[in-house]
Fold:
Amino acid sequence: MELEQHNASLQAAHQRAFSYISGETDQTEAILKKLAAFQVAIPSWALGTGGTRFGRFPAGGEPRNLEEKIEDIGLLHKLNQSSGAISLHIPWDIPSNPAHIKALAAEQGIRFDAMNSNTFQDQPGQALSYKFGSLQHVNKAIRQQAIDHNIEVIKHGIELGSDSLTVWLSDGSCFPGQLNFRQAFQNTLEGLQEIYKALPDNWKVFVEYKAFEPNFYSTTVGDWGQSLLYASKLGPKAYTLVDLGHHLPNANIEQIVSLLLMEGKLGGFHFNDSKYGDDDLTVGSIKPYQLFLIFNELVEGMDARGMNHAKDLGWMIDASHNVKDPLEDLLQSVEAIMLTYAQALLVDRKKLAEAQMNNDVVTAQEVLQQAFRTDVRALVAEARLRAGGALNPLGYFRAAKVREQLIKKRGLKTVATGL
Ligand SMILES: [Mn+2]
Structure:
């Protein structure tokens, strides 16, 4: 089935819905422009079926190498026109021929977003073990190995045209007494300072925090306070990265986002959803209103600082799942992000500010929920259509039997690198 044919079959229904929503706002064209510019990076580890420590059930036709991962993202981007970036994980996806990989990505309209280092597991042939941490380690040689790895990741990123590094450390402790907290912090800070020195002038480093797991008593970058402390001590190229699944239950993430933006220290975002912990479920599948409140703060905070929504923060998905087709799941995640962004753009900011000034709590809630309860699907679809995408990416994916074709080409029992 051709894309044009798919779009033509849905055009009449789409036009009805689009006319309705266009009549609800005088911002239609401005919103469509912002939606078209907004791109979400797909992580190289989300293209295959994720597993748990209990099992893994491959979908079939999964990408066998970096080239095929880029092909898959190209496919997503062709359909939704909002996935024009990839976030690479090293060493799972070391480009053996960077010029070739860069050209391949450019062909598909994909750029390289933040690079991700990995000092949370030992690689085959690795000299020293990260069992008791990496940058926090009591052994200087192990800290140095972790620093060297991060510098290596920066070099790979430079070759590909990336301009940021995300550092997530699993460092921490599982039992009281295991660590001297201050020593662990100082070691980690010194390591990050060495990595920071290796950053090109136009690069950023994102310090990602996580409350717990795999360490269950303390985490050395455990919350936004600790991340902000590192980022502040490091300097202007260092920022905090918020991963939606990395908080303690019921944390007010929208408030964290608001204050980090106020301080100019919010660097990037990892989207996913969760019910219990770092569940890494499809974006918007569990708590869509929370996602809306977060986007509301993002839009308000970025506008207050005159930031470019599309370019000034790193937007990435960080999810992994066990039961869905990974590509269908990513289409759902990107769609949820675009819908929520569109809703946040619809918030009547003037009315909200007035309600806040008057302590009119009821109106403040009404303003937010008015936007949240607006069906913006036709707005997002129109932006996608104008950019050359599919009116219904998921519908097209199934109608065109994309997974079946991938299985035919790649086989049923393939496993994506890193999984
Ligand atoms: Mn993450």
About this structure: The first helix runs from residue 3 to 24.
